[in-house]
């Protein structure tokens, strides 16, 4: 027989108070696990949504007013392409991708089109100074919020269709052109067709999938080709920046303004800030719930333990009379508390995960999966609370006078 | 051997000093069998607590085998109790949620015996008190006499040199009383020292010596052959 054997048998000897304590601890951990689970998967969903939105910061010439987020480059004002270089060299934290653009009006067989010059990533890579900085080759950002998934997914960018989702493309030839879905239909063009544009023949590299945005009616070609053929020179209308949500909502805009004071920085900060705030609130709320419920659980355990000590006075006295040390008696009660904490933590994890799995889709439209990390957090927190709550009762038990075992004591 | 030198034990109750043991001297040689008798409140239990190393006297020395018991730390006295002293209680003090075998295993567990050693010794002791067929029974499933026999088996588990018994037959009928006293007598014959508190003259008659305790003062009133 070992101490753990005695603890286990005693636990089942008095199941009602044990189950009450267990329930209190389980509820605390359930709240933590459910809310944290929903929060984390909500953040991931927001990250995905932000990623599909593409750029979340725009650098515009100072006189431009933002009328439409996707049409921000249709204003006719320009700024030097050199700003892109400055931004890249500045290595601002939170910047994941840069996408400079120049829009010009052109005709394809007398059909007026908007031709947007874009800079493929290969151009960035070709600039040794940028490559040396590791810029744009690797995503910059934290592992939370919008940056939960890297915006710069090199393999995906090799697909020209990635332009529709990430607003960037890896490779684009001088005489390649990419068509939006609507424009392709209007021109009756398909992949491999040749289109006359600004006096040159361009080959259709791909037709983008429908995005539901203004991009569906546009065609995209290499920025430098558009600059040369339109005679606009080394200028751009807009620099789109794919930034991490937290940074876009925080210090990045200030940093960008400091770096490019002669431009106007526009962000969807309000949206980002709201999402970040909601996530943060939920996360903090889960800890508040956990604290309150574990406090209640701790108080319940302390109360049960005190009652247990009172109920077992003679038993403890007997053990001490026949050779049990104070340390042994303390371990007997703390061991019991640890078992309750571990069991409550594990049960709370299971129930919390089920609650999150049920409520997640109903409340927020998200699907959650078990997060093993929360099992450790739940069990650890519950065990610490249970043991701390039992310290005083255990000390009281260890301090009992063994003389009470005698008949008239 | 126990040697009590001028042991005084006083308590404060409601602002009044109560003397439980008053300058008592007592020598208990090895393999003695002593009955301590006296009216309620005469200090019998206090004397047993002092002998058991559980209550430090206000003044005086308690020597056990030449070692001053209360110069040892609480933990050292606990360990010594586990090693040298066994207790028999009036209400048996068995752990209600453990089986007979597990109850006997407790002192063995506390002295760090292996599971196998614990089980073997517990079975041996239960067999000695005639309960080898009740090893998996809980106390509530046994008679009073059987419970006291389990308690006796537990007392013997660590082979103690001294047995301190507090009214060991107080809760038993006359037949079971005889049986329990026979076991105690047998343990005495094994070479153990037995100090027994009792208010029952028949039970006290089993002892070699009878010490009467009145108002905390010890008086030897009889010395007889053990029954």
Automatic annotation (TrEMBL), chain A:
UniProt-annotated location(s): Cell membrane
CC terms in the record's Gene Ontology section: plasma membrane
GO MF, any single term: ATP binding
EC number(s) reported in the record: 3.6.3.-
Entry membrane topology: Multi-pass membrane protein
Enzyme class: hydrolase
Keywords assigned by UniProt, alphabetized: ATP-binding, Cell membrane, Hydrolase, Membrane, Nucleotide-binding, Transmembrane, Transmembrane helix
Domain ABC3 transporter permease C-terminal per the UniProt entry, residue ranges: 288-402
Domain MacB-like periplasmic core: 20-237
Pfam families: FtsX, MacB_PCD
Highest taxon of the lineage: Bacteria
Source species of the chain: Stieleria marina
Family: Belongs to the ABC-4 integral membrane protein family.
Main location: membrane
Membrane-spanning intervals of the chain: 285-307, 337-359, 371-392
Name listed for the protein in its UniProt record: Macrolide export ATP-binding/permease protein MacB
From TrEMBL, chain B:
Protein name (Swiss-Prot/TrEMBL): Lipoprotein-releasing system ATP-binding protein LolD
Known EC number: 3.6.3.-
Keywords: ATP-binding, Hydrolase, Lipoprotein, Nucleotide-binding, Transport
Transmembrane domains' residue ranges: none
Domain ABC transporter: 2-226
One matching Pfam family: ABC_tran
Coiled coil: none
Keyword Transport: yes
């Amino acid at each position: 027989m070992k101490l753990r054997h005695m603890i286990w048998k005693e636990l089942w000897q008095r199941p009602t108070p044990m189950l009450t304590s267990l329930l209190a601890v389980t509820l605390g951990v359930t709240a933590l696990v459910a809310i944290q689970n929903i929060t984390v998967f909500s953040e991931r969903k927001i990250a995905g949504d932000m990623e599909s939105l593409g750029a979340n910061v725009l650098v515009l010439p100072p006189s431009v007013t933002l009328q439409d987020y996707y049409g921000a480059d249709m204003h006719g004002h320009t700024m030097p392409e050199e700003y892109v270089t400055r931004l890249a060299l500045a290595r601002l934290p939170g910047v994941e991708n840069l996408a400079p653009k120049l829009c010009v009006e052109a005709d394809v067989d007398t059909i007026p089109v908007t031709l947007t010059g874009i800079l493929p990533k290969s151009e960035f890579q070709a600039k040794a100074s940028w490559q040396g900085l590791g810029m744009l080759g690797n995503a910059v950002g934290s592992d939370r919020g919008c940056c939960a998934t890297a915006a710069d997914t090199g393999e995906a960018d090799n697909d020209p269709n990635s332009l529709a989702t990430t607003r960037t493309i890896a490779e684009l030839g001088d005489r390649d052109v990419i068509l939006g879905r609507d424009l392709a239909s209007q021109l009756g063009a398909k992949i491999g067709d040749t289109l006359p544009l600004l006096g040159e023949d361009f080959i259709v590299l791909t037709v983008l999938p429908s995005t539901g945005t203004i991009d569906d009616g546009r065609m995209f070609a290499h920025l430098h080709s558009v600059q040369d053929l339109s005679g606009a020179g080394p200028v751009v209308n807009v620099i789109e920046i794919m930034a991490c949500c937290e940074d876009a909502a925080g210090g990045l805009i200030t940093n960008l303004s400091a770096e490019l004071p002669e431009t106007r920085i526009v962000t969807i900060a309000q949206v980002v800030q709201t999402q970040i705030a909601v996530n943060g609130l939920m996360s903090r709320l889960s800890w508040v719930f956990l604290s309150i419920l574990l406090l209640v659980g701790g108080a319940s355990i302390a109360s049960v333990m005190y009652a247990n000590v009172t109920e077992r006075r003679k038993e403890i006295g007997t053990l001490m009379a026949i050779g049990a040390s104070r340390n042994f008696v303390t371990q007997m009660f703390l061991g019991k508390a640890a078992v309750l904490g571990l069991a409550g933590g594990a049960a709370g994890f299971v129930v919390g995960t089920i609650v999150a799995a049920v409520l997640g889709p109903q409340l927020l439209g998200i699907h959650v999966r078990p997060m093993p990390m929360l099992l450790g957090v739940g069990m650890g927190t519950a065990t610490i609370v249970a043991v701390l709550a039992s310290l005083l009762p255990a000390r009281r038990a260890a301090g009992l006078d063994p003389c009470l075992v005698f008949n008239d004591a | 051997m126990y040697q009590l030198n001028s042991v005084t034990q006083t308590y404060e109750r409601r602002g009044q000093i109560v003397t439980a043991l008053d300058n008592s001297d007592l020598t208990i040689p090895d393999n003695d069998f002593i009955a301590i008798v006296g009216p309620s409140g005469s200090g019998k239990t206090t004397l047993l607590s002092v002998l058991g190393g559980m209550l430090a006297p206000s003044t005086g020395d308690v020597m056990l085998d030449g070692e001053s018991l209360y110069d040892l730390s609480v933990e050292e006295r606990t360990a010594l109790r586990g090693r040298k002293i066994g207790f028999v209680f009036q209400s048996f003090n068995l752990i209600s949620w453990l089986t007979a075998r597990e109850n006997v295993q407790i002192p063995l567990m506390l002295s760090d015996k292996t599971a196998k050693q614990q089980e073997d010794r517990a079975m041996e002791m239960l067999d000695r008190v005639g309960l080898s067929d009740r090893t998996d029974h809980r106390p509530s499933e046994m008679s009073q006499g059987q419970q006291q026999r389990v308690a006796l088996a537990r007392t013997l588990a660590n082979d103690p040199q001294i047995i301190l018994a507090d009214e060991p037959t107080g809760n038993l009928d006359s037949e079971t009383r005889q049986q329990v006293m026979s076991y105690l007598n047998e343990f005495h014959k094994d070479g153990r020292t037995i100090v027994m508190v009792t208010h029952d003259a028949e039970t006290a008659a089993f002892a070699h010596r009878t010490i009467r305790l009145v108002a905390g003062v010890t008086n030897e009133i009889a010395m007889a052959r053990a029954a």
